[in-house]
């Protein structure tokens, strides 16, 4: 265990019990593309496109190869029931998924086993698990749900190898995201009520500062936007949601 991980005290815990209970209650539906996590199923291919490009750029892998993460370790922090962990495992990584809700870890483990995938799932505080040395660290749509954002980014940084790659995504705190991602999405049933607290969304500038505080350089964010013609897609428009890489300074 490195010093950054060992020095975390209970006051620096990041799990919000209410958030963990909310998402744990949805565990049984997580893999249903028409269920409560339908929006994540639509979002996942867009995120994976960004992730694959970032992996190839950082590790120098062949963009046509099927196993760009062969021989590498990957962590997904806030993994839910494994929507990202499974594609990372298929890319060849030895994957660890960590979630605040034991119900999610159990659902993820069962789904991976049914698909013949070996993924190490854990439940609990990332900073207390003693994990480290990951070549790839991902945390997507998670930072807006934790109680201490600086501590959480610090935990992610402590888990990443010195030459590793981190990928973060979150909703942006804008007027448009409040209307579309919170009020409209929850009212229309696209996401379960109570999923988002708009005031906890993070702007790109705030994420840049949080990353810097953990000794990381945040890359140029890409927006995840929506349009009637394209649906969800990568964009220069950061108003709703954005995704970015981070590396050690």
- Name the CATH superfamily assignment: Vaccinia Virus protein VP39
Cα-based radius of gyration, to the nearest Å:
17 Å
CATH class: Alpha Beta
**Which fold name corresponds to the CATH topology?**
Rossmann fold
Which structural category fits the helices and strands? alpha/beta
Number of strands: 9
Low-confidence stretches: 1-11
Percentage beta strand: 15-25%
Distance between the termini: 21 Å
Sum up the overall morphology in one term: globular
Largest sheet: 9 strands, mixed
Protein name: Bifunctional 3-demethylubiquinol 3-O-methyltransferase/2-polyprenyl-6-hydroxyphenol methylase
GO molecular function: 3-demethylubiquinol 3-O-methyltransferase activity; lyase activity; polyprenyldihydroxybenzoate methyltransferase activity
Pfam families: Methyltransf_23 (PF13489)
Keywords: Methyltransferase, S-adenosyl-L-methionine, Transferase, Ubiquinone biosynthesis
Detailed description of the structure:
The protein is α/β, with parallel strands linked by helices and 249 residues long. It has one domain: Vaccinia Virus protein VP39 (Rossmann fold), CATH 3.40.50.150. The protein is 35% helix and 22% strand. The chain is built from eight helices and nine strands. Strands 1, 2, 3, 4, 5, 6, 7, 8 and 9 form a nine-stranded mixed sheet that branches. Keywords: Methyltransferase, S-adenosyl-L-methionine, Transferase, Ubiquinone biosynthesis. This is Bifunctional 3-demethylubiquinol 3-O-methyltransferase/2-polyprenyl-6-hydroxyphenol methylase.
């Amino acid at each position: 265990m490195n010093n950054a991980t060992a020095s975390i005290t209970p006051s620096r815990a990041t799990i919000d019990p209410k958030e963990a209970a909310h998402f744990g209650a949805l565990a049984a539906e997580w893999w249903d593309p028409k269920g409560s996590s339908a929006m994540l199923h639509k979002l996942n291919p867009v995120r994976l496109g960004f992730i694959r490009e970032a992996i190839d750029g950082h590790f120098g892998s062949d963009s046509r190869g099927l196993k760009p993460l062969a021989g590498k370790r990957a962590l997904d922090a806030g993994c839910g029931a494994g929507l990202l962990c499974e594609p990372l495992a298929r890319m060849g990584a030895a994957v660890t998924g960590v979630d605040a809700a034991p119900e999610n870890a159990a659902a993820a483990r069962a789904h991976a086993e049914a698909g013949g995938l070996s993924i190490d799932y854990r439940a609990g505080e990332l900073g207390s698990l003693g994990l480290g040395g990951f070549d790839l660290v991902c945390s997507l749509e998670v930072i807006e749900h934790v109680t201490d954002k600086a501590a959480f980014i610090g935990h992610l940084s402590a888990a990443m190898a010195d030459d590793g790659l981190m990928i973060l995504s979150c909703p942006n705190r804008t007027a448009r995201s409040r209307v579309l991602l919170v009020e409209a999405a929850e009212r229309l049933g696209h996401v379960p009520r109570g999923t988002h607290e708009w005031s906890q969304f993070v702007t790109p500038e705030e994420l840049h500062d949080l990353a810097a505080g953990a000794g990381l350089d945040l890359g140029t964010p890409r927006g995840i936007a929506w349009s009637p013609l394209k649906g969800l897609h990568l964009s220069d428009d950061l108003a709703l949601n954005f995704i970015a890489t981070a590396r050690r300074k």
